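Duplicate of #3305? Posting structure anyway:
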């Protein structure tokens, strides 16, 4: 999950709380189309990297077990 927060509140305390909750992007209304597209693109890239890392970990675990059985 890659959280993106869209808010109409520009108070620093809200942005600070969002960071503590690991929100990836804190966007203020009214939002520009380009800002939303950029935030979504970064979120998609992050999800793809997470998926690749998980796959790599699964492959590594598989080969580790395979080596134990054949070693």
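Output from current build:
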């Amino acid at each position: 999950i890659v959280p993106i927060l869209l808010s109409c509140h520009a108070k620093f305390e809200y942005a600070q709380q969002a960071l503590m909750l690991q929100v990836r992007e804190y966007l203020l209304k009214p939002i520009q189309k380009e800002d939303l597209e950029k935030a979504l693109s970064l979120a998609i890239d992050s999800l793809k990297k997470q998926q690749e890392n998980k796959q790599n970990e699964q492959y590594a675990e598989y080969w580790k077990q395979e080596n134990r059985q054949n070693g």
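Confirmed duplicate; merging threads. The longest helix spans residues 33-70. The mean pLDDT is 92.
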